[in-house]
UniProtKB/TrEMBL annotation:
<feature type="transmembrane region" description="Helical">
    <location>
        <begin position="40"/>
        <end position="61"/>
    </location>
</feature>
<keyword id="KW-1133">Transmembrane helix</keyword>
<dbReference type="GO" id="GO:0008320">
    <property type="term" value="F:protein transmembrane transporter activity"/>
</dbReference>
<comment type="subunit">
    <text>Component of the Sec protein translocase complex. Heterotrimer consisting of SecY, SecE and SecG subunits. The heterotrimers can form oligomers, although 1 heterotrimer is thought to be able to translocate proteins. Interacts with the ribosome. Interacts with SecDF, and other proteins may be involved. Interacts with SecA.</text>
</comment>
<dbReference type="GO" id="GO:0031676">
    <property type="term" value="C:plasma membrane-derived thylakoid membrane"/>
</dbReference>
<comment type="similarity">
    <text>Belongs to the SecE/SEC61-gamma family.</text>
</comment>
<dbReference type="InterPro" id="IPR038379">
    <property type="entry name" value="SecE_sf"/>
</dbReference>
<dbReference type="Pfam" id="PF00584">
    <property type="entry name" value="SecE"/>
</dbReference>
<keyword id="KW-0793">Thylakoid</keyword>
<keyword id="KW-0472">Membrane</keyword>
<keyword id="KW-1003">Cell membrane</keyword>
<dbReference type="GO" id="GO:0065002">
    <property type="term" value="P:intracellular protein transmembrane transport"/>
</dbReference>
<dbReference type="GO" id="GO:0006605">
    <property type="term" value="P:protein targeting"/>
</dbReference>
<keyword id="KW-0811">Translocation</keyword>
<dbReference type="InterPro" id="IPR001901">
    <property type="entry name" value="Translocase_SecE/Sec61-g"/>
</dbReference>
<dbReference type="InterPro" id="IPR005807">
    <property type="entry name" value="SecE_bac"/>
</dbReference>
<keyword id="KW-0997">Cell inner membrane</keyword>
Length: 74
């Protein structure tokens, strides 16, 4: 039977470095593909419309159940 190698331990780091953290953050943010102004506006409008539609639907369902419970228990 082959002998298994011991798992390697990761190298020890010197600790937290604010400079390296911000440099890494900046590098990652440069990789982000930001939406265009038009895309941002259209998707924001779509989100607001869906939230409004969902809230309205929940409101009417709540009113329906309130009316129904009033008929049964009132």
């Amino acid at each position: 039977m082959a002998k298994k190698e011991a798992p390697q331990t990761p190298e020890k780091t010197e600790g937290f470095s604010a400079g390296k953290f911000f440099q890494g953050t900046k590098e990652e943010l440069e990789k982000v593909v930001w939406p265009s102004r038009q895309q941002l506006i259209s998707e924001s409008v779509a989100v607001v419309l869906m939230v409004t539609l969902s809230a309205t639907l929940i409101y009417f369902i709540d009113k329906l159940f309130g009316w129904a419970s009033g008929q049964v228990f009132g």
